[in-house]
Structure formats: structure tokens, C-alpha cells
Amino acid sequence: MARRVVTQRQVTRIRVASNRGVFMISVAAELAEMHPQTLRVYEAKGLIEPKRSAKGTRLYSQEDVERLKHIQQMTADLGLNLAGVERVLELEGQIGRLHERIEEMEAAAARAQVELAEQLEEVRRGFRAELVPYGNGTGMELVRAVDARSPFPKL
Questions:
Q1: Mutual angle of helices 82-130 and 62-76, in 10-degree steps
Q2: Given a cut of 60, is residue 154 above it in pLDDT?
Q3: Of 35, 56, 71, 134, whose CB count within 10 A is highest?
Q4: Residue 131 lies in a domain
Q5: What domain range includes position 65?
Q6: What is the maximum span of the chain, computed from C-alpha positions, in angstroms?
Q7: With 70 as the cut, is the pLDDT of residue 63 above it?
Q8: HSE-up (13 A, CA, CB side) for residue 35
């Protein structure tokens, strides 16, 4: 009877920033489902800019691979040429920057609104301190403390 030996493998997971170049051109091409020469064309057109190792080897990041897939989708599915892809990528970049600017402005507006509310409450508190009830026999009303003082000095 043959004896089976079962060994367990230990899997080590490493987290790498999505913008760090870790894939060589052949791996990036396979992940993006395209030929490595296509990646070189995209690089020559300025659509993608991989990092370089100390020896000059192209290193693609996960973000680069996602961008390559996006470019591939625009050319294959939408029928755009590379000039059209370049323009779309520029416009997407502008939209992204505008969204960031909008978020900054919304945050600044929220901070200003909180500050304004705090200042308004401070004014209200100060104004309340100046108001006193004043009665002249027929009813009570709120008047400024300065106006409620008697013009006659107390004896």
C-alpha cells in the first residue's frame, strides 16, 4: 500500500501600492490581454508611462494595467483611434481634477457654514444679554437694557 504524504503550503501575501511598477512588459501585456508591442506603441504615443528599473527595464503598475485595459476597451469596443483615446484620457483627467476641486470647495463651504453658525450664535447670545423685560403696567415687552434704564438716578 502506497503512503501519501500531504504537505501544506504557506501562502504569503504582500501588499504593494497600486502605482508601484512591479510587472515586466510581458506580464503587463498578458494581464491587459494585448501584445507587448502594443504596449510599446502606447508608450511611444504617450498614452502610458511605465516606471523604469535601475537597468532601464519597463515596470508596469496595477494602475498602468488598468489604464491599458481602458485604452484597449476604447479602441476595440468604441472604435476610437489613438488620437481619440488620447483626447478622452485628457478629458477624464480634467474631470477628475474638477471633481477634486469641487470636493475642496464643498469642504471649504461646509467649514464656512459652521463658522458662520458659530458667529451667529455668538451674536444672538450677546443680543439676548442686552434685552430685558420692560413693563409699563399694560404688558411686558423686550427692550434693550440701555433703553430700560430710568433717566432718574436712584436715591
A1: 120
A2: no
A3: 71
A4: yes
A5: 25-79
A6: 121
A7: yes
A8: 3
Nearest to 67 by CA among 97, 39, 95, 94: 39
Locus of grid cell 508591442: 37
Asked whether residue 129 is domain-assigned, the answer is: yes
Query: 11 in a domain, yes or no?
Result: no
Q: Are residues 106 and 139 in the same domain?
A: yes
- What distance in Å separates the CA atoms of residue 5 and residue 21, rounded to the nearest whole number? 39
Residue for grid cell 434685552: 131
Write out the three cell numbers for 23. Answer: 510587472
3-state secondary structure of 132: strand
| Predicted TM-score (pTM) of this structure | 0.63
Q: Is residue 75 part of a domain?
A: yes
- CA distances, 17 to each of 21, 35, 89, 152, 154 (Å): 9, 25, 22, 80, 80
Provide the grid cell at 55.
537597468
Q: For position 62, which CATH number holds?
A: 1.10.1660.10
DSSP class per residue in 30-85: HHHTS-HHHHHHHHHTTS---EE-TT--EEB-HHHHHHHHHHHHHHHTS---HHHH
Q: What is the 3-state composition of the chain as percent helix, strand, coil, each rounded to the nearest 5?
A: 55, 10, 35
